């Protein structure tokens, strides 16, 4: 059994006193989802915007321990807020499961439903000291942030952390993994053809373009600047 206790890390109250714009991250309690929003938190915090990463103590600790390449605890603008949930089971993975969906984490998902009230309370408290609050939530946590719209100076943004391929794979398994031999044969014929070679070359070019986009001056970098300017409601120059 796992039980969560409410706590705030040192410095959160001080940040609330001075923040003009603050960001609240609401991740889904699963590693692949936690990790994505934690990295986004790092990007946002580089613009001197305080980021509050909210979740259960267990999952906040998991996010910090499993991240690679940097230390979230050493980033002064990222603040972890541990929120309470009822006790929940933590069963072992089932190696004989008919699908690859990690059903052992479902109890944590169900417990996260109870984050709705504490997340709202925290954002409401933060709204009295911050000029504007941007709540960025995992697409599977919409039920937790549904009350944020009632806070005048808070706005919510959905973060889609699941790819179209992942969704397709999930529904394919749910539907009993119907045969895809026809599609597979067609794809193999295509990839073995001259057109397939052209597609591989194009994919390599796209890969290079993606790498360049995240560099300073790249498209993704500019989009991040644009998003920060939007939530700050001011023009900014690139700072990352």
UniProtKB/TrEMBL annotation:
<dbReference type="Pfam" id="PF26168">
    <property type="entry name" value="Glyco_transf_N"/>
</dbReference>
<comment type="similarity">
    <text>Belongs to the UDP-glycosyltransferase family.</text>
</comment>
<dbReference type="InterPro" id="IPR058980">
    <property type="entry name" value="Glyco_transf_N"/>
</dbReference>
<feature type="domain" description="Glycosyltransferase N-terminal">
    <location>
        <begin position="20"/>
        <end position="172"/>
    </location>
</feature>
<dbReference type="GO" id="GO:1901135">
    <property type="term" value="P:carbohydrate derivative metabolic process"/>
</dbReference>
<protein>
    <recommendedName>
        <fullName>Glycosyltransferase N-terminal domain-containing protein</fullName>
    </recommendedName>
</protein>
<dbReference type="GO" id="GO:0008194">
    <property type="term" value="F:UDP-glycosyltransferase activity"/>
</dbReference>
């Amino acid at each position: 059994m796992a039980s969560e206790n409410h706590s705030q890390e040192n410095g959160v109250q001080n940040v609330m006193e001075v923040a003009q714009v603050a960001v609240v991250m609401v991740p889904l309690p699963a590693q692949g989802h936690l990790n994505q929003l934690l990295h986004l938190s790092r990007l946002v915090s580089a613009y001197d915007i305080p980021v509050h990463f909210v979740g259960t103590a267990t999952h906040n600790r998991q996010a910090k321990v499993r991240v690679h390449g940097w230390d979230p605890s050493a980033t002064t603008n990222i603040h972890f807020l541990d929120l309470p949930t009822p006790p929940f089971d933590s069963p072992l993975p089932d190696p004989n499961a008919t699908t690859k969906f990690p059903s052992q984490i479902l109890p944590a998902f169900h417990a996260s439903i109870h984050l709705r009230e504490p997340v709202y309370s925290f954002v409401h408290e933060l709204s009295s000291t911050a000029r504007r609050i941007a709540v960025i939530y995992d697409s599977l946590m919409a039920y937790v942030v549904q009350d944020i719209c009632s806070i005048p100076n808070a706005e919510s943004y959905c973060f889609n952390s699941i790819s179209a391929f992942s969704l397709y794979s999930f529904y394919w398994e749910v539907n009993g993994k119907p045969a895809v031999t026809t599609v597979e044969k067609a794809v193999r014929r295509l990839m073995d053809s001259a057109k397939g070679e052209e597609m591989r070359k194009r994919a390599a070019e796209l890969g290079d373009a993606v790498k360049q986009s995240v560099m300073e001056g790249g498209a993704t970098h500019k989009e991040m600047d644009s998003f920060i300017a939007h939530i700050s409601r001011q023009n900014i120059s690139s700072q990352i």
